[in-house]
Amino acid sequence: MNRIAKLDHAHVWHPFTQMRDWLKREPVVISSGKGAVLWDVHGNEYLDANSSIWTNLHGHQHPKINTAITRQLKKISHSSALGFANEPASLLAEKLVEVSNPKLVGRASSRAGHGSSAALPHLNKVFFSDDGSTALEVALKLAYEFTRRTRGRKIKPRFLSLEGAYHGDTIGAVSLGHIDLFHKAYGGLLFKTDKVMSPYCYRCPFNKAKPERADAREYRKCNWECVSLVEKRFSTQKKRGNPYAGFVFEPLIQGAAGMIPQPSDWLKRVTDIARAHGALLIADEVMTGFGRTGGARLPTSRLARTLAPPSTSLFASHHESVQPDFLCVAKGLTGGYLPMAATLTTQNVFDAFLGEYHEFKSFFHGHSFTGNQLGASAALASLEILQSKQSVVARNKLEQTLRDELNSLWSLPNVGDVRQVGLIAGIELVKDWRTRKPFALRDRAGIRVCEAMARHGVLTRPIGNVIVLMPPYCTTTAQARRMVSVLREAVSEVFE
Predict the structure, then answer these.
(1) Are strands 260-261 and 159-162 parallel, antiparallel or unpaired?
(2) In this structure, is residue 133 part of a structural domain?
(3) Is residue 88 within 8 Å of 382, Cβ to Cβ?
(4) What pLDDT score was predicted for residue 118?
(5) Is the model's pTM score more than 0.90?
(6) Phi first, then psi: what are they for 376, rounded to 5°?
(7) Residue 288 placed within a domain
């Protein structure tokens, strides 16, 4: 066994990993990477099919990001944000405000008797933190205290999120989550939040459609019962005299829940309901942000640039003309180079924390590496790449290549659903596609397929029985085809 692998076995405790299984075999020890390719200490080559756990946007060793970090390193790597400002963080905050406020077309809605306000929230304040969990923790604390300061100190703000929600691993973020496998051990530490049905079309009890060889969203037969349940939940809470303070959601697709995509218009419908009931919208775009949900189109005229359609945005929420009160980003913020996160919110929220020193109205929350210069420099370079014509064209091409290649998986009897949102794909494995019967977790179906893929040179990680493909944006057509073909071979190999 390689020396580094031995050290890992001796001392490293890995996240979300059953270490008894881990210690049974030599781990893949990554030593270098370039573009969408990784190499281990033995010289074996792999394709990075999940962007190093959903973080790496532009590929490894991108020259523009490398240069930005090196340039900043020659100045200063970090200084405190407690009492001091710095140039990269200030420039990044300006840029984040710019890209998070597109010219969305206000879509009035009469659904369920509710209407959309023409005045969308303007996000103009940025609170930096370290990762997705802390970005959600910041939003939660701000929303909680803002509600108490505007509705009254006697109010006990409550939050609503989705079944299967995962918003991170800090105590506040865990409280917003509803995956028992992850969270039940910490129940005694958590505060109560409510959940509502997730629009999981493939396994929805209201979907009367028989299984077909297509994305379940395309052939579903229902009456939007999942939306009606959201309306009912908000109405019930309002009758109790304490309307929800906030509605927390991952837009367009839930990640750790199993790559569960939302049918078109679901997000707009439920956020209209939340708005009508006075709830703040908290968008968890930790995974979905920075172009990951695709749909990018280059404006071709001055008018198009002025009236940019929602699909030109880097954020999933905007694809359905939804502008949240809190926008939480992390993972791809720095292009996958350094841990950094941000929570964007409005002037209205910010003003609630203003006061004289002795009033102690400050937001008492912080992180040692808030606004880190190296992370901010990497993020600025990443945003510049994202907005380049070359990147937009590459993302559109990769999205279409994935769509074309994923169609080949329908021939496999153990593939129940293939769902894609932009540059995210989830392939759900089942015992038989005709019955949708799932594998038990003890069968390790997803893990076994990913282990087989690794043997063939493609690295990714499952979510239970769902195989995730989320390649870096620099992935070539040939590499994308290989990712899917290796997945196809691995499924056949495991279940033959």
Answers:
(1) unpaired
(2) yes
(3) no
(4) 54
(5) yes
(6) -65, -40
(7) yes
Token code pair at residue 32: 């270098």
Q: Which residues of the chain have pLDDT under 70?
A: 104-118, 296-311
Closest by CA to 326, choosing from 334, 317, 335, 336, is 317
CATH code where residue 312 lies: 3.40.640.10
Give the model's pLDDT for residue 21. Answer: 93
Do 431 and 376 sit in the same domain of this protein?
Answer: no
Q: How far apart are CA 290 and CA 293, in angstroms?
A: 8
Which pLDDT score, from 0 to 100, does residue 298 have?
Answer: 44
Q: How far is residue 41's CA from residue 29's CA, in Å, rounded to a whole number?
A: 6
Kindly write down the DSSP assignment for every residue of 102-154, as one continuous string: --PPP----GGG----SS---EEEEEEESSHHHHHHHHHHHHHHHHHHHH-TT
Q: Apex CA 131: angle with CA 124 and CA 134, to 5°?
A: 70
Among residues 324, 336, 423, 297, which one has the least CA distance to residue 131?
336
**Tokens, residue 7:** 């050290």
User: Are 175 and 215 members of one domain?
Assistant: yes
The C-alpha atoms of residue 426 and residue 80 are separated, in whole angstroms, by: 40
Same domain, 366 and 397: no
Among 338, 359, 387, give the residue marking a domain's end. Answer: 387
Q: Are residues 274 and 412 in the same domain?
A: no
Q: What is the pLDDT of residues 222-247, one digit of tens each?
A: 999 999 999 999 999 999 999 999 99
**364 shares its domain with 281:** yes
Same domain, 16 and 119: no
Amino acid (one-letter) located at 414:
N
Contact present, 437 and 475 (Cβ < 8 Å): no
Which domain CATH number covers 436? 3.90.1150.10
Residue 67 lies in a domain: no
**What is the predicted pLDDT for the residue at 311?**
53
- Is 185 exposed, middle or buried (CB count within 10 Å of its CB: 0-12, 13-18, 19+)? exposed
Q: Identify the bridge partners of residue 424 per DSSP, sorted by sequence position.
A: 421
Answer yes or no: are the C-beta atoms of 252 and 319 closer than 8 Å: yes
The last residue of a domain, from among 387, 417, 443: 387
- Residue written as token pair 């280059």: 298
Give the number of domains in the chain.
2
- CB contact at 8 A, 286 and 452: no
Q: Cα-flanking dihedrals φ and ψ of residue 352, to 5°? A: -65, -15
Cβ neighbours of residue 190 closer than 8 Å, sequence gap 6 or more: 171, 174, 175, 183
Query: Per-residue DSSP letters for 218-269?
Result: HH-----HHHHHHHHHHHHHHHTT---SEEEE-SSEESTTTSEEPPTTHHHH
The CA-based diameter of the chain, rounded to the nearest angstrom, is 71
* 316 in Cβ contact with 285 (< 8 Å): yes
**Domain shared by 313 and 447, yes or no:** no
Q: What does the block give as tokens for 410?
A: 């329908």
Q: Decide if 233 contacts 279 (C-beta within 8 A).
A: no
Residue-range definition of the domain harbouring residue 314? 76-387
Residues 81 and 225 grouped into a single domain:
yes
